[in-house]
Amino acid sequence: MVDLGGDVTTCSESVTINGDIQNPDATYNWYLDNNLIPDENGTELVVNESGTYSVQITMPLNDSDCTIEDSVQITLNSEQTAGSISDYELCDDISGDESEVFDLATKNAEVESSVPNSNYNISYHFTESDADNYVNAITSTIQNTVNPQTIYVRIEDTNNGCMAYTSFNLVVNPLPVISEPSPLNICDDENNDGFTEIDLTAKNDEISNNQSNLNISYHYSQFDATNNQNPIISPYINTNPTDIIYVRVEDSETGCLSYTTLTVNVFENPSLTVTTVIPV
Questions:
Q1: How many beta carbons lie within 10 A of that of residue 218, not counting itself?
Q2: Which residue, 149, 153, 152, is CA-closest to 172?
Q3: DSSP 8-state assignment for residue 86
Q4: CB atoms within 10 A of CB 186
Q5: How confident is the model at residue 81 (pLDDT cuts 50, 70, 90)?
Q6: Beta strands of 49-162 (E only): which ranges?
Q7: Per the count of CB atoms within 10 A, which of 16, 143, 162, 197 is most buried?
C-alpha cells in the first residue's frame, strides 16, 4: 500500500511528498486535482502550489498489473492567523491630557503567544499599510497622539517566512474624579480623654461622589497609600486631636488611582459647671 500522509497546511514555499513503496518494478504517475502532471514519474514530488495531489503506482503481478493509489490535500499559505491582543492601557497623569508614553516591546511576549511556537520577528506600525509593507516600524517608546490609538503588528516566522498580522489599541484611562472631603469633626466620647472610635467610611460617598466603581482605603502615610499597604480598619482610634489621614481611591475597572487627604478633628466635650443656688 501507499500512504502519502495526512493533509498539510504550511507557510513553506514547497512541500515534498513521498510515495516510495520500495518496489523497483513500480511505476509512478502523479496528479494535481485529477490532472496528470507531465514528466513526474519519480517516487517523490515537490509541490509548490496548493491542491489535491494523488499518486498512482502500478506494479506487475503475475500476468497482470496491480495499481494502488493515495491522495493528500496540500495548502501552501503565506499568512497564518494570529490571536487577538489585549489593549495596552495606561493611566493618565494629573494633567488629564490623555497622552502617555508606551513601550511596545512589553507586548512582545503576548504577541508571540498568539501564534504557533516558533521564532519570530515582531514589528509595530502606525498603519495597516506600513505593517503589510514592512516600512516605518516603531523602534522606540512612543507617545499616543489620539486616544485610543490603533497599533498594527507584523509577525514574521523567521523559520519559514510565514506572516501573521494583528492589532491592538493604546488606551489612556482617566484618573478617578473625586472630591476633596470636608473635615471629619467628631466629639469625644464620655471618657473625654481626646481619643475615640471614628468611622472613616462615613466619608466614602463624599469622596467618591457616589461612584460605585471606586474603591476607597485610608492610610496613615502617603507612602502607605501609594503602595496600598497598612490600610486603616474602621472604626479607628485617633492618635492626636487632629489627624491627617491619607486616602487612596482606585477605579475597579481600570486600576487608575487618585489620592487626597482627610482631616479628622476630635473635640473635647464641653465641661458642665454646676452652680448651687442657696435660697435666702
A1: 23
A2: 149
A3: -
A4: 16
A5: confident
A6: 51-61, 64-76, 88-91, 101-102, 120-125, 142-143, 149-157
A7: 162
Cell of 227: 503602595
Find out whether the peptide bond into 148 is cis, omega within 30 degrees of 0.
yes
d(CA 66, CA 63): 10
Q: What is the distance between the terminal CA atoms of the chain, rounded to a whole angstrom?
A: 135
Strand, coil or helix: 238: coil
pLDDT in tens, 175-224: 999 999 999 999 988 777 778 999 999 999 999 999 999 999 999 999 99
123's grid cell: 514589528
DSSP sequence for 73-110:
EEEE-SB--------EEEE--TT--S--EE-GGGGHHH
Q: Are 4 and 71 in contact (CB under 8 A)?
A: yes
92 φ, ψ (degrees, to nearest 5): -65, 160
Q: Among candidates 240, 247, 190, which has minimal Cα distance to 215?
A: 247
The x, y and z cell numbers of residue 60, run together, are: 506487475
40 alpha carbon, distance to own chain's centre: 50
At residue 124, φ and ψ (nearest 5 deg) are: -115, 145
pTM, to two decimals: 0.71
Cα separations (Å) of 206 from 211, 213, 245? 10, 14, 15
